[in-house]
């Protein structure tokens, strides 16, 4: 049994706000329409804030998918906040607001929770359990690399460094890409199937999200050199009880990956090559594994450094706790601190902090 999860966030750090209608037209509508038409079940993780920006046409499609049992709604933080960077009362506020909106819009209570950027610490499962969640999604590679808890003593090295270099355009791009494909296939070999139980403040089941599998699927449906849906299906044929795709819906139809555009038809072709119908994420089997997961994210080094070490990020993180009320949610939005945030996204958070400080709403 394999599963699909699509993550939607229209506060995306690298997408201009003026492009939101285009994102909905090029990604949200075709992906939902094609998957529902093909009767493919999938998990849908859209932030509560994003739901307020979607058209009634998209919301209607989601409701149809829920009613037919094809869509499993998944919870997340309301404004895609990086939860380990927040005080505990704000973690719970983000969790509660997102859940309330989904219950109001769709009449369902999510059972699974998507950690934004898969950023995790061992107290978050307790807050999720307190608020009715049964399982979460966490980075599979971080699970493999949690045997040493102090990243200062022993930093984590990326499993496919040459592919990361190729993506960044560093060195001989084609050579790094070829070497990266070998590393990627080896990393896929490390992925295990099934849910795990995370030993935490309150234990919780977790679905591993394997970045290597995500990446291979994107390369295949994007038909990158030496890759195709058929090739990736061959790589993944022996991998059962895994997420085939667990990342941004915007990558399918709207956002390029290294100049190539993926579409939902390529994903359907991959599913046909695998000869399997996906299951809803909650129905994935348990692997029998129990483990401790270190504080981590799905960044290449599994750390939180991307959202903390930059000067602008550090300033935002310091000032954000001073924001109150509705403005606090906008100040906490992770995409002001994203991988490559646009100035307008970063300014949204700074403005929210300033307005809150001045007592403006």
Automatic annotation (TrEMBL):
Superkingdom assignment: Archaea
Molecular function GO labels: 1,4-alpha-glucan branching enzyme activity; hydrolase activity
Pfam families: Glyco_hydro_57
GO biological-process terms attached to the record: alpha-glucan biosynthetic process
Keywords in alphabetical order: Carbohydrate metabolism, Hydrolase
Keyword Transmembrane among record annotations: no
Domain Glycoside hydrolase family 57 N-terminal span(s) in chain numbering: 17-284
Family indicated by similarity: Belongs to the glycosyl hydrolase 57 family.
Protein name: Hydrolase
